[in-house]
Amino acid sequence: MKNNSKNKSIVSLILVVAAILVLAFVAWRGVNGHNASVVKKSTDPETGKTVTSSAIEFKYGKGAAANIKLGLDLAGGVSITYEADKANPSATEMNDTIYKLQKRVENYSTESEVRQEGSNRITVDIPGVTNANEILEALGKAGAIEFIDPNGKVVIDGSHISNAQAGAIQSQTTGLNEYVVQLELNSKGRKKFAKATEKFVGQQISIVYDGEVISAPVVNEAITTGEAQISGQDTYEEAEELASTIRIGALPLELHEVQSNTVGAKLGEEALRTSLIAGLIGFILVIIFMCAYYRIPGLAASIALTLYVVLVLVALNVLDVTLTLPGIAGIILSIGMAVDANVIIFQRIREELADEKSIQSAMKIGFDKALSAIIDGNVTTLIAAIVLWVKGSGTVKGFAQTLFIGIILSMFTALFVTRTILNALYTLGLNKVGMFGVQKKVKVMNFVGNKAKFFTISGIMIAACIAALIVNRASIGTILNYGLDFKGGTSTKVTLNADTSVSEEQNNIINLMKETTGDTPEAALIADENAITLKTEELDLSMRESVTTAFEDAYSIPEEQIAIQNISASVSGEMKSDAVVSVIIATICMLIYIWIRFKDFNFGASAVLALLHDVICVLLVYAAARISVGNTFIACMLTIVGYSINATIVIFDRIRETLHGKRSIEALTEVVNSSISSTLSRSINTSLTTFIMVFMLAVMGVEDIRAFAIPLMAGIVCGGYSSICITGVLWFVLKTKFSGKKKTVKTVKE
């Protein structure tokens, strides 16, 4: 029997390791990777003829990390949000406009994406491009495609065109390829075009775009099927250009820009590189800590965490999730939080070993007892992620998606993979109690007796937050340092060449911006990036083009080193309200969930009050350090809410486990003190591992990610403090206050 169990364990361990290796290969290369002959066409600049060449290239398959879609903040590019001038556009009008815009932006990048935001907004993302102002100007034009007969009358327009594609046919006379445009019309267009072509056989029908004739083909015969060929193009590229212009046609809706953002490819690459390095270092440090502190269980968790990271990479590709800079932060944060489930389990195992249970029995009981706390804690964090996913947009939505995926996969690896590996290692001979560690006798601390001290500390932090908000109001005019997302305007980030010091040129840069725009900018140096950010009132496109040209000429830098973000006041007002609504929705949902799960309103109420405490403490950091409050502020706050409630639930779960109908003040005091004390090491270790991951982001990340990581670190510390010192004690106060019984026993103070 022993040999049989040992063999099964060996097989289990081999399967887990094999799964990691196979999935790692899939994550890196993909399942359909192959060498392929790639045919490329180009135009000879001297002869104007199309030249065909072939080369062998490796094609990454589905699942390959190289195929993970990168957001604009990582890949570089342009993002624009348009709003329809029409108040209540129909679904058909919006869909038609999106289709036309999609055809238009595909001229710049085949990976471009056009999507609807709300009822009357459309966001366009074009990755990898550098000619941002040119694209903004081109896309800003509604355009008008019209087919004009010899009498100057409009035959059909863009609303009658279904599709236009470039193609090649073989000439029946010469046998050579002829490049044509295949035109498809809808039912209305087919009828109109049939009448015109019947009337004007042998004459020209001009194709006019924005008032300019782009082609004037001769009608050879009546076209009644709604399908036509426009011939006469010398090259495939020429045919594709004509087809593309026809495709984009006239947009069904008039649009105006309400938000735009441009990021240079080099800046995106640097953000990606530093974030990945930060994540790798943090991951290694967490593994070292887990192995050193938890020994064999820590080793099992480390293997499971490795599989977890690989699974996240595969999931991002398979689910076609766009990876953004906050998304990377979400993955790194979820690694720290993934450790939490393992820590809860291992602490339980140690407690069972301290009660002289066998290792096998301790492992089984440990996993069983930890299950409810792990599920409840992760569900509440999932609530925050879902609210962000639904209410957020752009990079915030990317953060929510990766956080959601990370939480689901972390529960799977902790509850199933870690258990499989741990059992396998035990069967293979790593079965000494010393290899697992035994929980030392827990000293029960008098948290309830010190509640006045804890409430006083919290009161001081809340008062400090209020004071900081008042000071900010008096000095900068607003309670917080609102970024572009929340107040509107234009932000220009200029990255100078390595041979020019941004600190030395600061005054010159500010003066140049003032001369160009007539507005004195708010300037912020980013020394480690040799960059400076200049914030002004909202600038129109022509003024933004002037700013770009001025810096290009003055400092001999390419356009890709000038990143411009523009947000209208209407959008910023919505983002601000969305931030408040998101936190309120998430908090209410968590309150309801906790109330249902624990069947005691006092649990939910004390948890929510502690959450408000944590939010205020993080708000203090934003106010005192005057960190820019933007779109990621929502993500930061809801992450803190989810993280804090996660830690709180572990303590509540222990209180529920030991309560057993106890009602006296003395018994409740003992329950709260022992529950907090017995989970103290778990609370500290989880906060530490999560803090390590976020700390590496704050140290090594780019400016935008640091502005997200620093408040997050403060939230982790505050969340750890409130879960240990506030929530359990607060539950005690609410429980005794509303129990309807007089206090008969005084609590003992240290």
**Euclidean distance between termini CA atoms:** 55 Å
SS elements, strand count: 17
Q: Give the strand line-up of the largest sheet.
A: 4-5-3-13-17-14-16-15
Largest sheet: 8 strands, antiparallel
Cα Rg: 31 Å
By DSSP (H or I, 4+ residues per run), the number of helices equals 22
Q: What share of residues are in beta strands?
A: 15-25%
Give the mean pLDDT.
Answer: 81
Unreliable segments of 5+ consecutive residues: 31-63, 741-750
The SS-based structural class is alpha+beta
* Tertiary shape: elongated
Helix proportion: 55-70%
What number of structural domains do the residues give? 5
Please write out the topology.
Blueprint: H1 2-29, E1 34-43, E2 50-59, H2 72-75, E3 77-84, H3 91-105, E4 113-117, E5 121-127, H4 132-140, E6 145-148, E7 154-157, E8 161-170, E9 177-185, H5 187-199, E10 206-209, E11 212-215, E12 227-233, H6 236-248, E13 255-263, H7 265-294, H8 296-318, H9 325-354, H10 359-391, H11 395-427, H12 433-436, H13 451-476, H14 484-487, E14 489-495, H15 506-517, E15 522-526, E16 531-536, H16 541-555, E17 562-567, H17 569-598, H18 601-625, H19 631-659, H20 665-678, H21 680-700, H22 703-737
Antiparallel strand pairs: 1-2, 3-5, 3-13, 4-5, 6-7, 6-10, 8-9, 9-12, 10-11, 13-17, 14-16, 14-17, 15-16
Helix pairs in contact: 1-8, 1-11, 3-6, 7-8, 7-9, 7-21, 8-9, 8-11, 9-10, 9-11, 9-21, 10-11, 10-17, 10-19, 11-19, 13-18, 15-16, 17-18, 17-19, 18-19, 18-22, 19-20, 19-22, 20-22, 21-22
Structure notes:
The chain has about 750 residues and is α+β, with helices and mostly antiparallel strands. It folds into 5 domains: about 1-65, no CATH class; about 70-140 and about 255-265, 2-Layer Sandwich (Alpha-Beta Plaits); about 145-250, Gyrase A, domain 2 (2-Layer Sandwich), CATH 3.30.1360.200; about 265-465 and about 570-735, no CATH class; about 490-565, Malonyl-CoA ACP transacylase, ACP-binding (Alpha-Beta Plaits, 2-Layer Sandwich), CATH 3.30.70.250. It has helices spanning about 1-30, 70-75, 90-105, 130-140, 185-200, 235-250, 265-295, 295-320, 325-355, 360-390, 395-425, 435, 450-475, 485, 505-515, 540-555, 570-600, 600-625, 630-660, 665-680, 680-700, 705-735; strands at about 35-45, 50-60, 75-85, 115, 120-125, 145-150, 155, 160-170, 175-185, 205-210, 210-215, 225-235, 255-265, 490-495, 520-525, 530-535, 560-565. α7 packs antiparallel against α21 (about 680-700), α8 (about 295-320) runs antiparallel to α11 and α10 runs antiparallel to α19. The longest helix is centred in the C-terminal third of the chain and has 35 residues, at about 705-735. The protein is elongated, with a radius of gyration of 31 Å.
